[in-house]
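Supplementary notes for students who missed Thursday's class. We covered one full example, reproduced here. Read the sequence, then the structure, then the short commentary at the end.
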Amino acid sequence: MPHSNPVVYFEIPVNDMKRAEQFYTNVFNFQFQKEDIDGYEMSLFPFEEKNTGITGALAKGDVYKPTRDGVIIYFKTESIDESLRKAVQHKGKILYPKKINEKYGFAVAELEDSEGNRIALHETLKND
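Structure (token representation):
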């Protein structure tokens, strides 16, 4: 098997698709593509085949249960401070405040989204 990143897709459980879409659009400026996949309501995150990284979807259905426990998805952001401000403004909660890792040149934070999921933010520090 060729060497590649092992994760290719994720799904974030939601209870209220409209509320979740509004949260992620307001915090990250995402636009979603709505799909019905195997009887489950999905809102697909943006994806560009030629770019690096993975994509996923907001997913609603009986097998999808929002949680603060389990896997944590990291979203890249240009400004953790701005993303946290927008998240709180749109019914999110800060769970782990911004921490800077000077050695590796990045900062991280964790928050609870509008549905009760724990997600994280990753910001690459700029060399000034």
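Commentary. Residues 9-124 form a domain with the 2,3-Dihydroxybiphenyl 1,2-Dioxygenase; domain 1 fold (CATH 3.10.180.10). The CA atoms of residues 78 and 123 lie 6 Å apart. If anything here is unclear, bring it to office hours.
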